UniProtKB/TrEMBL annotation:
Protein name: Stage V sporulation protein AE
Superkingdom, natural source: Bacteria
InterPro entries on file: Spore_V_AE, SpoVA
Native source species: Alkaliphilus hydrothermalis
Transmembrane regions listed in the UniProt entry: 6-25, 32-49, 84-113
Amino acid sequence: MSQFIWAFIIGGLICVMGQILMDVFKLTPAHTMCTLVVTGAILGGLGLYEPLVKFAGAGASVPISSFGNSLVKGALQEAEKNGIIGVLTGIFEVTSAGISSAIIFGFIGALLFKPKG
């Protein structure tokens, strides 16, 4: 039960940070998302994001900051195996399923629903 509470708290704190970036620093949603992705990538590169995921579960793995962590994680894993070219292939290998599904479901949604306008 406490894992659910921590997931809620950590996920909520990540969202609060994003809201602060938009409200206080007047960043656009795009700038806020990029900032959170880069923050997740930096924390992942320093080895600090994985312990957060183990502690908070979905509270840390669902927000956009986890995408940055995934990019770095994939790049580092493939770089160990294949050298510098692995940095590029690792990024695509780890994130391709999520990006592909977003494109496919977005396309299906566009076919099924009529936009208001």
